[in-house]
Structure formats: C-alpha cells, structure tokens
C-alpha cells in the first residue's frame, strides 16, 4: 500500500472533488460541535479490504476521530457484518462518507473478485494468478494491494520495474530477436527479459533468443498445451510461461492444469464491481 504521505495526498485529492466548494448541505443542517458514530456494514458477501484507507479519510477531516476495526483485511464476511466503526465530528463523517465508501468499496470489490479467481485454481496448483497494469488511474497502489489481499500476485508495478517486450515493442525494434538482444544489452543484470508472443512460430523465436519469461498472448487451449510441451522438452533451464488475453474465470482451471506458470488477468482490476458497503450513522 502507499506510504502514509502518499496515501494522504491521494485522499486529499479525492476529497477535493467533493469539498473544494465546501459541503453546503452538511454545513447548513448539522451543528459544527455535534458528534456522531458510523458503522460500515457489508450489504452483500465480500472480501474485506481497505480498513486503513477508510479510517484515514475521516482522520483527514477530523484528526480527533476514533476508529475501530472489527474485521481484518482479507476476511470473507456475510451480509450484515459490521466491518469498521468511526466516531467523530458529525460534519466530518458526513462530508467524508462518499470518499471513504468509494475507496473501500473499490478495494473490497477487487479483493472479492480476485479471491474467486484464486479459488478457481485446482487443488495443489503452483500456478500464480497475477494482475496487470490495467488499473484505475491514480489508484494502482490501492488496487494492487487489494489483489494481494484477495490472494493473488502483482505483475510489474510500473514501466520502470521490469523488462516486458510487447507486440508494439517488437514492431518498433524490428522483431523479437532484435528486441530481446537490445533489452539484454541495456537492462540491469538483475532484470529478467519477458517477451509477448502471439503464435507458436513466435514462441520458437523467443526460445532461440533465450527469453527468460514468455507470455502467450490470446493462445487457444490447444496451442497452450503445445507451448507447454515444447518448453518442457528443453534441456536445462527453461523460461517461465505466462498466459494473458481473454482470461475469464472458467478458463483458470484448464490453463493451470495445462502447466502454465503465471496467469495474468486484467479483469481483476478493470472489471471488478464495487463491493456493497454502507455507512450507517447514529448520534
């Protein structure tokens, strides 16, 4: 998750979307000295995620706010479970409600969907489920934390954190072999070279160029099996095989059973529905 100063900066930017012009309704209706309590309640089953972020929203508006976490991140809860409690100035709770819920609902939604993908792996499987960079702008660190809470793994965090040669890099470099050679000449010795391939022919070129990780992009199941067999037949060290593109929940078991090392799935973040969490206030 984000370091506290970065998290505060993110929360402040989001709060500003609502509060740059003040909160006319709350300021008109609620006494500034009034205190209230709020309970965050699960309205549907979900994997809990984002308690610390939920808490920090209210602390940014009321540094004296008191927070109680009743359920830890990563727990699966049923309808009606109280996740967190907060008490502080009523105006702060009302003004921060939407931001706190938006963030917690988003993070819990990602964690909940991720858990479904992880649980779809066959028992004993060593295949990793990983996210991608298809994240909400500005929210990557929080969504990637939610992926980990859901039980999956993170792919590269940013363009500067790994060498990953995709189709347009291949075009711009003049081919798979040329792209890998240039990457190996420039990348730090600590970096592995990953390359995306779109066919079994391209797989052969990536193997010849000694890629460390090969991503099979939009492969059919038959071609996935062929690729796994080809790589397993290699003598000595073999590259990791990753699949991506069109990854849906029903495909997880068959891809893992085929022998794939990593399944990267953009849906974990770009298609996760918000979890249903409500904030019930009382005096």
Domain count: the total is 2
Biggest β-sheet, characterized?
6 strands, parallel
Task: Compute the number of strand runs.
Answer: 12
CATH architecture verdict of the largest domain: Alpha-Beta Barrel
CATH class of the largest domain equals: Alpha Beta
Class computed from helices, strands and strand pairing: alpha/beta
Topology of this structure?
Layout: H1 4-19, H2 24-29, E1 35-42, E2 46-47, H3 51-61, E3 66-69, E4 76-77, E5 82-89, H4 90-119, E6 128-130, H5 140-149, E7 163-165, H6 167-173, H7 176-186, E8 193-197, H8 200-208, E9 213-217, H9 221-232, E10 240-244, H10 252-258, E11 262-264, H11 267-270, E12 277-282
Parallel strand pairs: 6-11, 7-8, 8-9, 9-10, 10-11
Antiparallel strand pairs: 1-5, 1-12, 2-4, 3-5
Describe this structure in words.
This protein is of the alpha/beta class. The chain has two domains: 4-118 and 272-282, Alpha-Beta Complex (Aldehyde Oxidoreductase, domain 3); 122-270, Aldolase class I (TIM Barrel). It is built from eleven helices and twelve strands. It has helices at residues 4-19, 24-29, 51-61, 90-119, 140-149, 167-173, 176-186, 200-208, 221-232, 252-258, 267-270; strands at 35-42, 46-47, 66-69, 76-77, 82-89, 128-130, 163-165, 193-197, 213-217, 240-244, 262-264, 277-282. The strands form three sheets. It has a six-stranded parallel sheet with strand order 6-11-10-9-8-7. The chain has a four-stranded antiparallel sheet with strand order 3-5-1-12, with helices on one face. The chain has a two-stranded antiparallel sheet with strand order 2-4. The radius of gyration is 23 Å and the shape is elongated. The chain starts with a helix and ends with a strand. The mean pLDDT is 97.
């Amino acid at each position: 998750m984000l370091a506290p100063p970065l998290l505060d900066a993110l929360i402040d930017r989001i709060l500003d979307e609502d509060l740059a012009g003040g909160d006319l309704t709350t300021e008109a209706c609620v006494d500034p000295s009034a205190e209230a309590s709020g309970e965050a309640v699960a309205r549907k089953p979900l994997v809990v995620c984002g308690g610390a972020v939920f808490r920090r929203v209210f602390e940014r508006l009321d540094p004296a706010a008191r927070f109680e976490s009743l359920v830890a991140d990563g727990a699966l809860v049923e309808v009606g479970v109280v996740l967190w409690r907060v008490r502080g100035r009523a105006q702060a709770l009302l003004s921060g409600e939407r931001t706190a819920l938006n963030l917690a609902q988003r993070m819990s939604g990602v964690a909940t969907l991720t858990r479904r993908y992880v649980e779809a792996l066959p028992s004993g499987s060593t295949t990793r489920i990983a996210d991608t960079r298809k994240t909400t702008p500005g929210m990557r660190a929080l969504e990637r934390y939610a992926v980990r809470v859901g039980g999956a793994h993170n792919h590269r965090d940013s363009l500067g954190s790994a060498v990953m040669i995709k189709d347009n890099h291949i075009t711009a470099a003049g081919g798979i072999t040329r792209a890998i050679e240039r990457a190996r000449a420039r990348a730090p010795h600590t970096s592995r070279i990953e390359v995306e391939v779109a066919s079994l022919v391209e797989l052969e070129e990536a193997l010849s160029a000694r890629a460390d990780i090969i991503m099979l992009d939009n492969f059919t199941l038959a071609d996935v099996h062929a690729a796994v067999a080809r790589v397993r037949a290699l003598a000595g060290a073999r590259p990791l095989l990753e699949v991506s593109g069109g990854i849906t929940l029903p495909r997880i078991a068959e891809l893992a059973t085929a022998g794939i090392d990593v399944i990267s799935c953009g849906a974990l973040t770009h298609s996760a529905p918000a979890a249903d969490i409500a904030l019930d206030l009382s005096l």
